[in-house]
Automatic annotation (TrEMBL):
Keywords: Ammonia transport, Membrane, Transmembrane, Transmembrane helix, Transport. Residues 455-467 have a biased composition (Basic and acidic residues). It is a multi-pass membrane protein. This is Ammonium transporter. It is found in: Cell membrane; Membrane. It comes from the Eukaryota. It comes from Paecilomyces lecythidis. Residues 468-477 have a biased composition (Polar residues). PROSITE patterns: AMMONIUM_TRANSP. Pfam families: Ammonium_transp (PF00909). InterPro entries: Ammonium/urea_transptr (IPR029020), Ammonium_transpt (IPR001905), Ammonium_transpt_CS (IPR018047), NH4_transpt_AmtB-like_dom (IPR024041). Gene3D superfamilies: Ammonium transporter AmtB like domains.
Length: 477
């Protein structure tokens, strides 16, 4: 076996390719970084998957806006990550709370061994972690469901990634981070991705306020269940790379994490469908099954590389039961968070992080040949307390800082976080896009059910338009 590459601080970029063969240091480890690159490609599919999921859950008149945002948020986050995001999260000279700007503009991020694993070139590690950040940002903007202005959401995403995601990623995964050294156990992002996105989406929805005519049946019905199903399939497939690549090597631990991912998603489906079947007196729900899969995936994310297969099944099942039981959480909180990001990602992430502390096993983490992280199964009861510290810190930081950021943006002249009432009534698609397809929909705007096939919803006319009189009224005149 070749010697493991060693980072040389005197050549932070990994060497001059005009003088040496920079590939030579990775001879014997090619499959390691090829595997992580493949996992990165798979993770990328989560982003359009979320776009399809959100688009299907929304009413038709705002469906294209959510597809568009998923693509635009990936573009904005990529720029942020290249600009300073990677450096703030993963610089080798980071403080316990946030990185410095030693890698500003991806300076020296090329072929040197990465801070995450010496067998990965840093450029591979950087791309893989970029996709985690992008997925998280796309999840967060679901909190602006059907009423958030698109341009301000893009500006918000740049700053949210900078002051919320990057510090939390540094806490959790940077070797200098305070949660990393506590240590809290987070294999693939239960804290930085799910808990942070869930609480931030809740903050986004709270600051924007409720949708107009909130409470109507049509607001809670997906317009296209097929898109919901396809989006969930993309997300489920992408999660194999999300969890399977988080070992940062192609070890047996990574293979187990992939098996655990599928297991938890499946038991998540079973748990949620069971709750729906009991609640709705023997009837099923396709959307409920999809939500159950996502709840199981969220729950297993922090635990995938720490627990055995049967305990992964328990985590998926328990997480989905808890999330399905929180069906009325928005009413309890009096916040209109229609995409249920907080219920699935926030609550699901907290349940998963807590159960990781209970079920983590040193014998599982040791499958990569070097990690020895004991959990509750090994008698390490303190790990549950450390997981609670992670949950509390990330929840409070992400919610409070997101609220502050949104309030600052809200009071900047010209920065309208929310569309006006007329635009909300006609839908984000017609209000903010000029695509020919959207123009074609105007022929259906007076046809009942065109915007919501599930709810038989009639489009609401803008406030300034007078509603036509019915035949009965005309005859009365």
């Amino acid at each position: 076996m070749a010697d493991t590459p060693v980072y040389n601080a005197s050549e932070p970029s990994g060497g001059d390719p005009l003088k040496v063969d920079v590939n030579a240091q990775y001879e014997g480890f090619e499959w390691e970084y090829i595997y992580i690159m493949f996992c990165g490609f798979v993770v990328w599919l989560i982003i359009p998957g979320i776009g399809l999921l959100y688009s299907g859950l929304a009413r038709r008149k705002s469906a294209l806006a959510l597809l568009f945002q998923s693509m635009m948020l990936l573009a904005v986050t990529t720029f942020q990550w290249m600009f300073w995001g990677y450096s703030l999260a993963y610089s080798r000279t980071a403080s316990p709370f946030i990185g410095d700007l030693k890698n500003f503009g991806l300076m020296n991020v090329l072929v040197a061994p990465s801070p995450g694993s010496p067998v990965l070139p840093e450029i591979v590690f950087c791309l893989y972690q970029l996709l985690f950040c992008a997925c998280t940002v796309v999840i967060v903007v679901g909190g602006a469901f059907e009423r958030g202005n698109i341009l301000p959401s893009l500006i918000f995403s740049f700053f949210w990634a900078t002051i919320v995601y990057c510090p939390i990623a540094c806490w959790t995964w940077n070797s200098n981070g305070w949660l990393y050294n506590l240590p809290s156990l987070d294999f693939a992002g239960g804290g930085p991705v799910h808990i942070a996105s869930g609480w931030s989406a809740l903050a986004y929805a709270w600051v924007l306020g409720k949708r107009k005519h909130h409470g109507e049946v049509s607001h809670g019905k997906p317009h296209n269940t097929t898109l919901v199903f396809i989006g969930t399939a993309f997300i489920w497939f992408g999660w194999f790379g999300f969890n399977g690549g988080s070992a940062l090597n192609a070890s047996m631990r990574a293979m187990l994490a992939i098996f655990n991912t599928n297991t938890a998603a499946c038991t998540g489906v079973l748990g949620w469908v069971m709750v729906d079947y009991i609640k709705h007196k023997g009837k099923f729900s396709v959307v409920g099954a999809c939500e159950g899969a996502i709840a199981g995936l969220v729950g297993i994310t922090p635990a995938a590389g720490f627990v055995s297969i049967w305990l992964a099944a328990c985590i998926g099942f328990i997480t989905s039961i808890v999330c399905a039981s929180m069906q009325n959480i928005n009413n309890w909180l009096r916040i209109d968070e229609g995409m249920e990001v907080f219920k699935l990602h926030g609550i699901g992430g907290m349940v998963g992080a807590f159960l990781t502390g209970i079920f983590a096993s040193q014998s599982v983490s040791a499958l990569d040949g070097s990690t020895m992280d004991p959990g509750g199964i090994d008698g390490n009861g303190m790990q549950v307390g450390r997981q609670l510290a992670e949950i509390t810190a990330i929840s409070s930081y992400s919610f409070v800082v997101t609220c502050i950021l949104l309030c600052i943006l809200k009071y900047i002249p010209g920065m309208h976080l929310r569309v006006n009432e007329e635009q909300e009534m006609i839908g984000l698609d017609r209000a903010q896009f000029f695509d020919e397809q959207i123009g074609d929909w105007t022929m259906y705007e007076n046809t009942p059910g065109v915007f919501s096939s599930s709810a038989k919803e009639e489009p609401v006319s803008p406030p300034h338009e007078k509603q036509p009189s019915s035949n009965a009224e005309e005859s009365g005149k």
